């Protein structure tokens, strides 16, 4: 969820970039109700945007898992007879394409991780204008992702999937080149 609260972009720094100092509760009304309603509405929209990023991330993972499962199923189905008839350059090209899409998958996961980190920092800063700091509290309860026993960040699991497929492709490529 919310990354550690230290470093060059700690909450105080983020808060100074996030909040419009020329607009405050006094610009809305004397009681600040409209201001609080506006902050809450922005918070809701931003949390929804973070959820949508997570949904897109899940779809991306599903797409790449499907592609890799199809590649491995196809390779297993055609068997060694077809592989031994392919020229070496064909095997190398197929291997590079498979490795390339795994590399792209890995980079997309890393990019989603960075985007989510930034979004949850902003959510944490927005919460400082609300009565409860639910994301901050949850992240603290999970040990800020530092201890796998309390919380294993999903990104770490996700990043291993393209690496696993890359290892499988390199091993399969070595066997296929040995047969060619």
Word description of this protein:
With 180 residues, the chain is mainly alpha-helical. It has one domain (11-179). Helix content is 75%, strand content 0%. It contains 5 helices and no strands. The chain has helices at residues 11-18, 33-85, 88-127, 134-141, 154-179. Helix 1 (11-18) crosses helix 3 and helix 3 packs antiparallel against helix 5. The longest helix is centred in the N-terminal third of the chain and has 53 residues, at 33-85. It starts with 10 loop residues before the first helix and ends with a helix.
The average pLDDT score comes to: 83
Tell me the major beta sheet: none
Helices, by number, come to 5
| Unreliable parts | 1-9
Cα-based radius of gyration, to the nearest Å: 24 Å
**What is the chains' assembly state?**
single chain
Strand segment tally: 0
Which shape, going by the Cα principal axes? elongated
Structural class: mainly alpha
How many separate structural domains? 1
**Beta-strand percentage?**
under 5%
Q: Helical amount among residues, as a percent range? A: over 70%
Termini, distance in Å? 48 Å
């Amino acid at each position: 969820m919310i990354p550690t609260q230290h470093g060059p972009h700690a909450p105080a720094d983020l808060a100074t970039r996030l909040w419009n100092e020329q607009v405050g509760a006094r610009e809305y009304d004397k009681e600040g109700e409209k201001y609080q309603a506006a902050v809450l509405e922005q918070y809701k929209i931003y949390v929804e945007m973070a959820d949508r990023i997570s949904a897109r991330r899940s779809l991306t993972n599903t797409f790449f898992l499907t592609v890799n499962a199809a590649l491995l199923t196809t390779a297993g189905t055609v068997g060694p007879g077809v592989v031994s008839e392919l020229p070496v350059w064909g095997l190398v090209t197929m291997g590079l394409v498979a490795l390339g899409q795994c590399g792209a998958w890995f980079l997309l996961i890393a990019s989603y991780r960075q985007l989510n980190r930034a979004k949850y920092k902003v959510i944490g800063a927005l919460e400082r204008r609300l009565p409860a700091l639910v994301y901050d509290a949850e992240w603290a309860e999970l040990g800020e992702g530092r201890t796998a026993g309390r919380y294993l960040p999903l990104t770490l699991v996700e990043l291993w999937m393209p690496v696993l497929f890359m290892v499988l492709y390199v091993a399969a490529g070595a066997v296929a080149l040995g047969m060619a």
